[in-house]
Model the fold of this input.
Amino acid sequence: MSIDQLLKEHAQTKSLVKGAHAFRQGDRDESLYVVQTGLLKAYYILPDGKESIKTFLKPGSMIGSLSANYNGGACTFNLVALQDARLSQLPFTVLLEGARKSHEIAREVIEFLLALYMKKEQREYELLSLPAAERYQRLCAEDPDLIEQVTQNDIALYLGITPVALSRIKKRLQLSEDGGHH
Amino acid sequence: MSIDQLLKEHAQTKSLVKGAHAFRQGDRDESLYVVQTGLLKAYYILPDGKESIKTFLKPGSMIGSLSANYNGGACTFNLVALQDARLSQLPFTVLLEGARKSHEIAREVIEFLLALYMKKEQREYELLSLPAAERYQRLCAEDPDLIEQVTQNDIALYLGITPVALSRIKKRLQLSEDGGHH
DNA sequence: AATGCGCATTAACCCGGGTTAAGAGGAGCG
DNA sequence: CGCTCCTCTTAACCCGGGTTAATGCGCATT
Done:
């Protein structure tokens, strides 16, 4: 028994048109989503009304508000489609029950959480130690498609800066490229 | 079978005097540590030689370099005692084997990873959205003892700023306190 | 008492990013 | 065609934090 099988047997399909939300901050959506097609972003609305982007999601990504489950709270972020998207939706209860019954699923869940944690740790490291310009360059290097598909506004919010600042950074980078080679 | 029992049966005790390291960046230490007594910090040395503090550890905390295990890599950070400390050391292999055999342990591991992930997510949120002054105030509110026991230098490195900046922030805060009440 | 060391404070200067606002280029639509 | 909306760019100004360096202070050592 694996997570894939669980999905095949118990997941519902959820289709979203561009701009539609899967769930919003404050909702009590207790499901795991797996992206089949499309592109989405998970984002916070901060107390001061500003937006901060947690992550982008491409086909194959899984997401769900863990805190909505772990301690019975509400979703802490929003999930919206940047392009038409199709998701598989699986109640967390089904997943956790699966983990109780199957070692394989438990192992997969542990694996998944480990990977998730390490990605977050990597991001924390970058936020603490790298200037915005370098964070941008790394993002470009590691996921060039994303830069194409997402507005500069959203890239900036993901990097933790404003679109204006990102525009300046891009200019500086291309200047030092042009002037740099001798 | 629980993690506590595993520890009782298989863990070794490791004692550290103030300033001694449990492991260092680059080591291949594949153990889980549980703090019994003392105070420790986990920190990175950045490429430019600067230090960045990942977390402080008080009795009851667990830690270990997940990436040293998850993908057979080396430790990505250092663990050092800020005060004399006593740790329980358990090989990860024992823990993972335990999780394979016991649902209870698997559940505890999942629980632990979930909690770990949510703490990181919280920190990411704060790094992205809060100014340094507010991050400091939150830290003071949520863990006042820590502020007492740790040098201002380390507090600053944990907050992602320099000790100089933290000193300025403290001054500003106490000014706005004194001037603030009317 | 004198020396040295680590830690905290303060000041002066610089720079990156935030803020606001203006303008430029496309894309869609009447 | 002109209009609007959206995205990106650029400029001007401000401010927080980094950097460096000087100073002060407690504490340990001798």
Summary: The helical segments of chain B are 3-10, 67-70, 92-101, 103-129, 132-142, 144-149, 152-159, 163-180. The mean pLDDT of chain B is 91.
